[in-house]
Specification:
The complex is a heterodimer. Chain A is of the alpha/beta class. Chain A is about 50% helix and about 20% strand. Chain B is an alpha/beta fold. Helix content of chain B is about 45%, strand content about 10%. The chains are: A alpha/beta, B alpha/beta. Chains A and B meet through helix 7 of A and helix 13 and helix 21 of B.
Chain lengths: ~220, ~600
Amino acid sequence: MQTAAFFRIEGTLTERSALAAAAWITSNAQGVGERVARLGNVALAAPLRFLGEMQTGAAATRVTWMGVRGMTEDRLILLGEEYYEKYLKDDVLDVGKDLLKQAKKQGRRVVLISDNVDWVVAPLAEQLGADDLICNRFEIRKGKATGRLEDPVIGGNVAGQWARSFASEHGIDLDASWAYGASAADSLLLSAIGQPCAVNPDWQLRRLAKDHDWPVVEK
Amino acid sequence: MKTNGHGKSGHGTGPNGHGPNGTNGSNGHARPRTGTRLRPGLELTGREGSVREGSGREGSVREAFAGKHLVVTGVTGFLGKVWLGMVLDFLPEVGRLTVIARGKKGEDAAARFQRIVERSPAFRPLREKHGPALRDLVAEKVRVVEARLTEPHLGLGEEGARALAADVDAVVHFAGLTDFEPEPKMALDANVHGARHVADLAALTPHGRYVHVSTCFVAGIRPDPEIPEEITPGLSPNGTRFDPAAEIEALEEGLAKLDTKKERVDFATARANALGWPNIYTYTKGLSEQLLETRDDIASTTFRPAIVECARSYPFAGWNEGINTSGPLVWLLSTSFRRLPAKAKNHFDVVPVDTVARGMVLATAAALRDRARPVYQCGSSHVNPFTFERAVDLTGYAVRRLHERRGTRWEREVLGRLEPHCDDPDREQLLGYKRMRQAAKAMRGFLRDFDLERVVSPALYERIDGDARKESLRSFSMKCRTTDRKLGQVDEMLRQFRPFIHDLHYAFRADHLVEETAALSDEERALFGFDAPELCWRHYWVHVQVPGLDTWCIPLLRGEKVPEDEPLAPAEDGVRAKRGERSADPLRHAV
C-alpha cells in the first residue's frame, strides 16, 4: 500500500492565511465602492476565525469568501494568479520545503490541503510538485461568483473522517502516512494519521503535541 | 481609425467613370445568396454534388495553392502583410504572387515592398527562418507591380492589364480605406472604384476568381442582431430597395457641388444613414459589395472580417500596426477617463489578425478550388462572444498591471486603482469629460479677457509680482485650451465609435469558416484553421492584446514612434538564423 504526506498549506508551507488572500482579492475588485463593501464582508470572518475553526467548522471559510459575490470569473482567476505570483511563489517556508522534499524522497504521495481557493493555490501545488490538492472552489454562475463555495467546503479543520475516506479511495496506508499541520484546527487531521507532526505550531497545537508526544518542527 | 485592418489603397485622382464590366445594378430580385458560387460558364466538377449545407467539405489548402499564380493588392496594410507572410511561410507550394502596390515617400513600389519585407515585424518569422536567403525566396515567388487601383485597368492600360491577368488563377483584394469618416471622394475611390478596377482585372483572368476583403460592419443598422453570411442584391441594411450604381452616381454628383470637406462628409453620411449604414466607411464598403454582386463576369468571394486586432501568435503574440479600433479605447481607459460610453452586453467583435489571415487563406483556397461560398464572415461574436463589459473589466485589470510595472506614482497609486466601467453615453457626469470640457472652455474664455493690472491696484500688483502672476495665468489659459482641444478629440472619437460600441448589437455568423476548418487535416487545421471559437479572451486580452497595443499602437496615439526591426543582414554575412528557429521572446524588439 502507498503512503502519503498530508500538508496543511497555511502554516506549514506559507505564513499567509486564506483570510489574507480573500482580503487582497476583494480589495482589488473593479469599483472603489465595492472594494470597501467586499472588504467589510471579509472582515466579518475575522471574529469567527478568532474563535477558532474547531468551534466554527467551515462557517468561517464560507464567510471569508462571501465577499467575492458578483466578481467576475475572469478577475478572480487573474487576481488568484497575481496573488500567487506576488505573495506565495517566492515565500514558501524553508521548513515546509524540506519536509516536502523528504516526503517525496521517501516515495510518499504528497497531498496539499488548504482552505484557500484553487486559483490561488493550484499554481503553488504545481510549483511544489504535489500529487493532490484539496482546496475550495468558487461557485460560478454566468461568469460571476455567487459568493458560495462548491461542496465539499474545506474549512480550517479537516476532519479525520475525510482523511480516512481519501485513504480508502486512493489505497493509502494511513498508519504509515504523515501529516503536517500548524494550528489547533489541524489536530483532527493529525490525530487521524499514523505519523503526525506539528510545524511552527500555535500555542494550542504545541500543547496538544506535547501531550500526545508528536514531533514538533520549528523554522 | 480602422475597423478592419486591411491596407489602404492609393487615393489617386483617376477618373471615376464606371468600368465596362457591369456596375449597373440589376435591382429586380432581392434574394440572398448563400450557396457555392461558380463563374457562369464554368462547369461544376468534382465533389460539388456532395456538398451539403452545414457539412464540412474536403480539400487541402496546400493542394489548392500549389503552383497557383495570385495577384494581391493591399499587402502593405496590416492584414495583407500577415496573410502574405503566412502564405510564404506555410505554403511554399504556391506558384507565384504578383503584388500590386504603389510607391510612397520617394520610394517606388518595389523598394517599398522590399523595405517592408526586410523591416516589418510581420515578416520577422520569415527573416528568422531564412535569414538573408529570404531575399531569394521573395525574388523567386513575388513580383511587384506598381499600379494605381483608383484608375481603370489599374493605370496599366488595357494591354498591360490583359498581359498581367493572362495566367492568373485568382485575384485577392485587401486594399481599402478604413477610416470611419474619411473624405468621401477618397473613400469612394478606394473602396468602390478601387474594388471595381481590381474586379475588372479578375474578369480578364482565365477563371475570373476574385476574393474581396470587406467588413462585417456592412451589416449596418438593422433590428436583428444575428447577421447571416449572405448578400441580398439591391437591398440596403434598413430594407430600402436601391440601385447601387445609381446611388454612387447620385453621391458623386452631390459631392461635386460641395466645397468643404465637412459639407461633403455630412452629405455622404446623410446618404449612408438613409440607407442604414452608420458611417462613410461601412457605406462605401457596402456599396462595393452590392456592385460586385451585380457582376456576372467574375466568381466573387466576399470576406468580411470584424475588428482586426493584435496577433495571437503569428508573426508573434501582440503584434499590431497602426491605430485600430480598440487602441484608442484602451489608451483612453489608461488615462483618467473612467467611464466608457459602451453598452455592457453588446458584443465587442474583435478577431486577432492572424485568425483573420487564416480565414483568408481558407477563403482563398476555397475560391481556388471553385468551391467558395459567396460570403465568409470572420468574427467572434457568434462563435465565442466577448462583451464590452468583459473587455472593460479586463482592460482595467491589464492597465493596472502595466501601470504597476512602469507607471508614474500617480498612475500606480491612483489611476491604476480607479478602474473603468461601461456607462450610458447620454448620462451627464458631474466630472465627466463633457463637463470638464465646458469648464476648460469657460475658464479659457474668462482668462483671455482677464487683465490682472486692471483689477488690482498698482501697489498690490507690484507687491504680488504681477508680471509673474500674469505669465502664470497665461500659461494656465493655454493649458485650458489644450485640455479643451484634447477633450474635443475624445468627444469626436467617441462620437464616431458610438454606433459600434453602443448603438448596434451584432452577432456575426461565421459558419462557413467553421465548415472549411472542419474539412481540414489536423496538420492544416493547426496552421490555417479558424481558431476564434477556441480563443481564451482572458488570456488574449490581458497578456496579448493590451500589452501589444501598449507597444505597437498607443505610442502612435501619443505621437511617438513604434519600433522597427533591425534590417535584414547583407547576404554575405551568411544565414543569420537556421530554418525553423524562432525567437524565444517574441516581443524582444519591441521593448
